[in-house]
Amino acid sequence: DKDPVLTIIQDPERRATLIAVRDSDWNGHTKYQFDIHLQGDAETVFFQWS
Length: 50
Fold this sequence. Notes:
Shape: extended
Order of helices and strands: HEE
């Protein structure tokens, strides 16, 4: 709730599309997963910059 960009998005489910999720440890390194969905119910939020 402290990130000024993420707080623009009111819906927590839509906001979650912009956050990587900790997946596992791999060879002593933390691994994160970030999926980009171009359309559909789980579509990743995109910002329009002008």
